[in-house]
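Bump. Still looking for Tip attachment protein J domain-containing protein structure tokens.
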Amino acid sequence: MGKTVGAIISVGLAVAVNVIPGVGQAISGAIFGGLSAVTGTVGLAASAALTFSQVAAFALTTGLTINGLQTVGGILGLGPSAPKPDQAETAIKNSRPPRVSAYGTSRLYGAYILYETAPDGAAVDVYAVHDGELTQILQYYLADDAVTLTGSVVNEGDDGRYADSTVKIYSTTGASPGASISAVTTKLGSSIWGTAHRGDGVVQLAVICEAVKSKHFLDIYPNGVPVASMAAKWQKCPDPYATDPTDESAWTWTENAIRHLMHYMLVHEQIDYATKIAPALDYWKAAADVCDEDIALKAGGTEKRWRSCVAHKHTDTHASVKSAIMQCCDGWIATRSDGAYVVYAGKYYTPTISIGADEIIAFEWNGVGVDDDEAINEIICSYVSADHDYNTVETNAWRDEDDIAERGQILTDSLEPQVPSWGQVRRLAKRQMARKNALYRGTVTTNASGRVVRGERFINLTLTEAGTTFYDGPVEITAVTRNLSTGGVTFSWVAVDPNIDAWNPATEEGDPAPVGNRVALEPLTTPTIDTASAVLSSDGSFAQISVTVDAEDRSDLTWFLRWKLSANTVWNEAEYTDIDAGTSVQLLSDSVPSNASVDVSVAYQVGDGRTSDWASTETVDTTTENLAPSPNTAFTANGGTGEVSGSWSNSTSSNFGHSELWYGTTSVFGSATQLGGDYTGGAGEGEVFTESLSADDYYLWTVSYNSAGTAYSTTGPIPVTVT
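Sorry for the wait, here they are.
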């Protein structure tokens, strides 16, 4: 359910006409430039290498403008991404297989370009694995076996497989110009595989399996003739900090997702560096720095925040490949007014742009939560694991147990970015769930002044109408279109929690997929919260949550307490390492907001690193309604003829509401009566009084009340005499 203010906005299609000078590397020789007329053989054509500066290209994009709206550049990283190529899972046989390139470290199979039987009975297979020069080969595989080599000979396995030097592996680096694999020529002859089969710019992998007697075949080849694959550090990439990021000779290997994106856009999309990246280079540097930030690991040490091991087909759309790379870093990219690309990696920053009533023409606001058909409360997390021979495996799902309990159902989505870390995919899942389940979202149409949002991921947004404020806080922009009828823009947004990057490895990192045949340990008992209550500061400016927990009497427990405002989705966590063992444990949170509804939960970790589930959430009200403010100060009072006079300074408490003057004929406040009206000066302000009284002896008090008028503190009494 949403609230629409003003005109209904019709979002149209995009139009853009761009002639883009190309830059890029010559993607080396066509794998299938020529076909050998030999049965069972697909030949590699010889090709010449081109330099970066010799390649040029242009792109012409056209579209339509409808109802006065025009896109100003799509925001990538939030949409569908290209799936991993088939060659990441198995070898393929195809008359025209797509080229495959990869970033970071991963394992690739190949496309068969030759599969022949030599005159001596040996099986000879050659694969085209990767387009572009690799950096370093890490591991060869035959089927699912990681193998080692002595020279080119595969070493015998523990069970006798590949014995007697029966299998040999050869490979090229993908350099241009390349060199033909001479061992294949020796086996098959130059008429089938000659010196011209260099495969310039293509990583080739060749396997020669010698013939063996039938009675030994299953001993040597227990799974038949094996399919080969290889793990490697793949392409080198430009560095935004380099003197000239387009100088290929200075490129280096990296796992940095933003540098991967820069490489793809320069080499494959062939954008013009001078006009599309250089003007916004500081954004690329900052985003690359975010990717390289160290994140603590619960086992000790650190890993880089956002790494990528994306492999892609050259037939995939540019948008889907860029989205796959950006998915690895929760990235965001869009064009700004000068046409340059502004890019951000996934990390919140304090907005510098504010949009409010002066800029907004119309808005649509949704602040009633997310329906079941849109919400998610469980994300199945997968990653590419080097410990599992670079296969995709699962880690612990990211779950919102409170939402599951409230909705009474599990709403599952999956997240399978091509990243090499279980902790990283769970950090991505945390951000995805917070964005998907954010309570507030909508669209805004602005006048010309609102165009300042272009190139901004986060802004401050204030939505007001007829004196009612619907939203006031930071938001993330998820799409932007130019509005030709208003001269401004129309953008969609979703509320963002500034605490989204808070990360506790002990409770949030999860565990890697198990390796080997280890027996799973018994799950830990979930702790139970006995009591949870607010502890208010003396002036009500902040609160803490005191939690008493039923605990196991173990000396190796480390406790965790987390809290969040009930309306938010992101938790704040604290660790307690010095809690005495016992069957009842008391934890006191850090400062939490007063006059708020606060959710709280606890968990614990045992000495072997396992962490319990979180306890059922308790909700605590931190209202200061019953908290008295601090007393008024500097109270003076004097008697006179038919009157009393004096002054005081109001309480400085944050929950101070007003002051009163009271009098009585005894020094007992319980029998006193208010004198005059309320004194409504602000906290800490001075108050002066003159009030009429009949002749007698009196006692005077000044009384400070809280903003709810339900609790007070007294100052006095001061005795006076009225004549």
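Residues 88-236 form one domain.

Edit: fixed formatting.
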